[in-house]
Amino acid sequence: MLYVGQIQYVNTLPIFGxxxxxxxxxxxxxxxxxxxxxxxxxxxxxxxxxxxSSVEYLSKQDEYIPFAHxxxxxxxxxxxxxxxxxxxxxxxxxxxxAVTGESATSVKLLQILCKHFWKISPIFTPLDEKGMQxxxxxLIGDRCLSHQNIDGYQRIDLSHVWYEATKLPFVFxxxxxxxxxxxxxxxxxxxxxDEVLKSLAWSESNIDTIIARAHQQTQxxxxxxxxxxxxxxxxxTDEEIVGLEHFSELCGFQLHREQFHFSYQNx
Length: 267
Prior knowledge:
Layout: E1 3-7, H1 13-20, E2 29-33, H2 35-43, E3 49-53, H3 54-59, E4 64-74, E5 81-85, E6 96-99, H4 104-118, E7 123-126, E8 136-140, H5 141-145, E9 154-157, H6 158-166, E10 170-178, H7 186-205, H8 207-218, H9 222-231, E11 232-235, H10 238-251
Parallel strand pairs: 1-2, 1-3, 6-7, 6-8
Antiparallel strand pairs: 3-10, 4-10, 4-11, 5-8, 5-9
């Protein structure tokens, strides 16, 4: 049996929608959690495959390999990774920005935007339970989508800032596989690859069902969710890989691009 990690936000519903709606059968055991918890579970070998933060993949390319060319990416505005600030960006230098502990990539993206594009050096602190207060804070996922506007704060979409600066897509998360299980569970991996691609294809053909499920999960309007899913990219192509490579360089890593061309049929 394969143990598969699924990000608990609605951004991955299209990938797993076929399974959730019983349109595609699978023997895999799914574990739903935040990106940072899935990072840890895969690191601890409690999972075989998982959606993880792209920065986690970049730091462990010797251990993981991209799976089925799936992930979470965006071109331009995304709406689910945003900085909320009371002050203009240039006035956040040496000010506190509270950041969520749920996503390593979103925090790293914010740090890179501050350093390389905005040329400021804020003080990053953990987002506490009260959360939405102080000079500025970062929200992600469903919580961010649920707060389109907060009184007294400007909302800055980090994906939009990245795209405006680079004209490249941004990859927030990747579906990856632990390399050490490739031979051990080869047949199961090949079977699940076929299943998960069927699940995504089913969701793409039944997007209204996915939107309805997302609405039930979050109470967000169907109009907002429809717009959101039109912006979320789940299929990672060469264009997204170029964006990931640029992000990788800014993080101080070298992307092993050849790993994206790995064929499970030839293991």
